[in-house]
Model the fold of this input.
Amino acid sequence: MSEIFNALEAINYWNIKEEFNTGFIRQSYLDKIEEASGNKLIKVIVGQRRSGKSYIVRQFIRHLIKNKSVDPKNTFYLNKELYDFDNVKTASDLADVIKLYKKKVKPSGKVYVFIDEVQNIDEWEKIIVSLAQHTVDDYEVFITGSNSRLLSGELATLLSGRYLVFEVFPFSYIEFLKFNNYKNNKKSFIKYIETSGLPEVYNFISNDIHRHYFQSLKDTILLKDIMYRHNIRDYVLLEDLFLFILHNVGNLISIPSIIKYYKSKQRKADYSTISSYITYMEQAFIVRQCSKYSLKTKELLSGEKKYYVNDLGFRNYLFPQLKTDIASMLENFVYMHLRMSGFDVKVGYHKQYEVDFIATKGNLKIYIQVTYLLSSEQTENREFRVLELINDNYPKFLISMDEIKINHPKGIKHQNIWEFVTNL
Done:
């Protein structure tokens, strides 16, 4: 246990006197967590691998120490992704480590417990629930995970809603601008959509390193977060399905159409398997689903859906030839930024037309049509016509990469895409 304690000392702030570096401050996430803290609710921070969850946790610990005058000894941080903690395999092991910390460090009063990638500890629910509901000692618990199934099992049952979820996305376009000290213009926007929103990527220079990084990340997510977790035997099909989605971003596709595609390639794939694999990819946050919504009946429609990738870097560096498909890149960008801004997003469908996105948040609803360029009067009329046909008074936006804006007589707002997302 002495080796584990030494490893804990190395990553905690108990004896650190000088300022510690926690990277680019993602203030919007810190504000949300701060607003929700100070109670017994478990804070659950989820998101795709490498999206920055660990940095946000460390930034919040720093915030507690520097701005809330919390004694560093009253913060406990364990990152299960680190090899040093490979022997912390079960809830019982974690309980023993926390007991060791309390014995050695001797914190007085409330303890803030942070466990990174908690899903890698067997039966972690038992210790997390025990700490959060402890009747004698005062704990506030924060956990992170790379899978949305984190809350689909025993924890959700045991807590009966006594937890709060915070989803961490890759860098938004605004964060990208701040991190790189760029101006908000077309050049910066193109650079963002042609690279990635994953923070580590900005430390790399060559395209080869980028490609290897995303290849490794893809393999880790598909193997560790999906294949091993769900005992999948056909890894080739799982990987092929992810690549199929990468190549069909923004297209309406259905599971039967995917099965038909594989059948044309002399590949076996049944409905249950394809459906499960897509669900697993969504749970690992690598793929996003956007359902169809009937503009006439006001209900969700089964069948075809659109799929988007959590970060465009998977397309940009694994399949650089897809950069020529600008329309799908723009759709992916807008969809992800609507989600980052807290909107629920659907594809608007009517038998006569389709609108790219219906985005709702509380009482707010907006319609968005995305196009590359209004290169001709015919294109302009077609794209505006879709929004004109929607018979209600909610805001309607046509967004494109045109720098010159068109004034529409019926109040439909035309904006360039980089201005639209920064005003969300």
Remarks:
- The CA atoms of residues 399 and 420 lie 7 Å apart.
- The chain has two domains: 2-167, 173-422.
- The longest helix spans residues 207-230.
